Amino acid sequence: MKVVPGSFGTFAGLATDADSRVLDDNDTPIDGLYAVGVDQASVMGGHYPSGGINLGPAMTFGYLTGRRLASTPGEHR
């Protein structure tokens, strides 16, 4: 097998809303379930333009989701 340099990432993942809440088949948020990073459908709309493109959205949505969860105790599981 030939091994060549490449990049890692996905563009397919769980559908989420703007608050990173995972959506069900009816586009309704699933209570207490969040996805960010490569588990979240890419904000690039199905494109993978370059290596590392998943890092920025992972950090941004992870940060925002963490802050949201930390500021609303008792509302999330």
What does this structure look like?
With 77 residues, the protein is α+β, with helices and mostly antiparallel strands. 22% of the residues lie in helices and 12% in strands. The chain has one helix at residues 55-71, and strands at residues 21-23, 29-34. Strands 1-2 form a two-stranded antiparallel sheet. β1 and β2 (29-34) form a beta hairpin. It is elongated and about 50 Å long. The termini are far apart.
Largest sheet: 2 strands, antiparallel
The gyration radius over C-alpha positions equals 15 Å
Cα end-to-end separation:
46 Å
Q: Can you list the strand order of the major beta sheet?
A: 1-2
Characteristic key phrases:
alpha+beta; 2 strands; two-stranded antiparallel ribbon; elongated; 77 residues
Offer a concise description of the structure.
This protein is α+β, with helices and mostly antiparallel strands and 77 residues long. It is built from one helix and two strands.
Topology record:
Elements: E1 21-23, E2 29-34, H1 55-71
Antiparallel strand pairs: 1-2
